[in-house]
């Protein structure tokens, strides 16, 4: 296969009036280079004949995501990310300064081959198509920014997550040590900080030990995403690389910022770094901070277990984070082995009657004299709403505010056993959610954060934009924004991992009410 193109003139470009699968090629538009025999590029656009990127907003209304597809032999598809050259004609490439960097120049094959892509699916059958791929992350031979031309900024949005400060640190230090970039601004207080707050100058010295602290030195917020004001601020300040760290909402915000920047034709790379303690961002293997959270949750589960086994009929209830996805609860349960029951949003449960939670608790208490229950904050929200007859309340970003399922469940369990004269229970409820979130990243998360930051920097320097960076099957890749915002990763309760959990706790599956 020939070089994977990131610009119109590099190879055969086909403009597609996208079919539902987004893959139909209609007509050849530009053949600046010879088209490799088996490679076709389809930039989905509502207007045939126009190689420029179209805004996704217009297309979203028709339900068609913006995409830049490259197809090859045997069902190979590259879901490529935008490049500045897609909408700026006269960009100049420069040799990558890493070539003469004493630390990196010794590495054999340090630069990533432009043909490299990362497969989304690695378990395949002999006859299955090669399927979706993403552009491999890493340093390129050529960069599209000169070191002293770069003016970068970093912003953190959404909830806290262990490792946020590490990512900030590594972007600042990576830009400086690898590319000689010295102008980096920190935007305070999330998206609204672009237009309503001061900025902080970030240097390797000022961020030197921030990875040892929880939270984010830049501050964060929900809501306040005003695209026009944000892009005005980027333009007015002369910022040309924007590093945006945050969850699914933040990546949606980054996507519209990219669209507006592209509409204005600005030479600004917009890079998303996925952050979610809930591990609910799709496509990527795992989000930073997740391992730290699972580890920190062990302390709460251990405490609940100690309390429960120290009294007669002791019950420990621990609430962990997980708004829509129960990964923290599932992994913390599997890691601990002291948990008797784990409740997650993906697996509905019920309290009363045969096969219900109360029946199981009674049985387990009779067998063991104590039990530990872990509940993800998003589990059983329908039951709580029903019993409290409450209406939906939302946070400033539009996320539904959750009821305290741990407190509600503890109350319900106490109420149930109060009706049983022979069983006196002793229930302790532990809510460590914000403690789990506020710690610094652990050692392995810190290394992971470093790799994310470096991959982000290499992508921006190489002129890529409009992408989120993250590991796909262990290899870092550049993923178009729409792929990480179109859905949420959830625990699949028909998969082996959940079966392992059910087998480890021996809890009911609650499948038959
Ligand atoms: N669809 C959207 N378009 C533009 N901006 C958005 C969108 N959704 C969310 N945002 C903005 O992104 C920021 C963060 O969103 P949100 O509070 O949902 O957190 P998040 O990034 O999903 O992280 P967390 O995992 O902590 O929930 C907010 O400033 C919000 O205004
Ligand atoms: O109280 P806050 O800051 O809105 O954050 C709570 C939410 O943030 C998350 O940790 C996601 O970042 C969810 O698990 C949780 O529901
Ligand atoms: Mg979110």
From TrEMBL:
The record marks 249 as: Important for substrate specificity. Its EC number is 2.7.1.11. This is ATP-dependent 6-phosphofructokinase. Residues 51-63 have a biased composition (Basic and acidic residues). Residues 153-458 form the Phosphofructokinase domain. Substrate binds at residues 276-278, 321-323, 377, 434-437. Mg(2+) binds at residue 248. It comes from Spirodela intermedia (Intermediate duckweed).
């Amino acid at each position: 296969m020939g070089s994977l193109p990131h610009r119109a003139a590099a190879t055969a470009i086909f403009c597609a009036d996208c079919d539902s699968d987004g893959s139909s090629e209609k007509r050849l538009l530009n053949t600046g280079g010879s088209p490799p025999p088996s490679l076709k590029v389809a930039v989905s656009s509502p207007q045939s004949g126009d190689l420029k990127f179209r805004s996704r907003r217009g297309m979203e209304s028709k339900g068609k995501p913006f995409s830049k597809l490259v197809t090859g032999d045997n069902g190979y598809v590259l879901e490529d990310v935008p490049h500045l050259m897609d909408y700026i004609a006269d960009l100049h490439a420069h040799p990558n300064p890493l070539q003469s960097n004493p630390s990196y120049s010794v590495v054999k094959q340090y630069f990533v081959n432009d043909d490299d892509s990362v497969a989304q699916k690695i378990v395949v059958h002999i006859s299955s198509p090669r399927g979706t791929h993403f552009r491999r992350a890493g340093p390129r031979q050529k960069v599209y920014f000169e070191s002293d031309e770069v003016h970068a900024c970093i912003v953190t949005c959404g909830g806290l997550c262990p490792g946020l400060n590490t990512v900030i640190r590594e972007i600042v230090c990576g830009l400086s040590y690898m590319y000689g970039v010295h102008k980096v601004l920190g935007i305070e207080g999330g998206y609204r900080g672009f237009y309503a707050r001061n900025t902080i100058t970030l240097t390797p010295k000022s961020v030197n030990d921030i990875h040892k602290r929880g939270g984010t030195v830049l501050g964060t917020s929900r809501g306040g995403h005003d695209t026009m004001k944000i892009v005005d601020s980027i333009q007015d300040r002369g910022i040309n690389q924007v590093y945006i760290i945050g969850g699914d909402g933040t990546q949606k915000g980054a996507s519209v910022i990219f669209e507006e920047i592209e509409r204005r034709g600005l030479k600004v790379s917009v890079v998303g770094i996925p952050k979610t303690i809930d591990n609910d961002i799709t496509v990527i293997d795992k989000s930073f901070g997740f391992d730290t959270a699972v580890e920190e949750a062990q302390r709460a589960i251990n405490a609940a277990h100690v309390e429960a086994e120290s009294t007669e009929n002791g019950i420990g209830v621990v609430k962990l984070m997980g708004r829509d996805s129960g990964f923290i609860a599932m992994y913390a349960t599997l890691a601990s082995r002291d948990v008797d029951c784990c409740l997650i949003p993906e697996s509905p449960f019920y309290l009363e009657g045969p096969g219900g939670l109360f029946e199981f608790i009674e049985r387990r208490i009779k067998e063991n004299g104590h039990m530990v229950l872990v509940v993800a904050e998003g589990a059983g929200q329908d039951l709580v709403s029903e019993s409290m007859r409450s209406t939906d309340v939302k946070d400033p970003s539009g996320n539904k505010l959750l009821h305290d399922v741990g407190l509600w469940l503890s109350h319900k369990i106490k109420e149930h056993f109060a009706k049983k004269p022979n069983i006196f229970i002793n229930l302790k409820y532990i809510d460590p959610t914000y403690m789990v979130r506020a710690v610094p990243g652990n050692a392995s998360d810190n290394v992971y954060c470093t790799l994310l930051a470096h991959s982000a920097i290499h992508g921006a320097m190489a002129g890529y934009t409009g992408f989120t960076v993250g590991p796909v099957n262990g290899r870092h890749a550049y993923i178009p924004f729409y792929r990480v915002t179109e859905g949420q990763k959830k625990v699949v309760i028909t998969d082996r991992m959940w079966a392992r959990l059910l087998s480890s706790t021996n809890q009911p599956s609650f499948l038959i009410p």
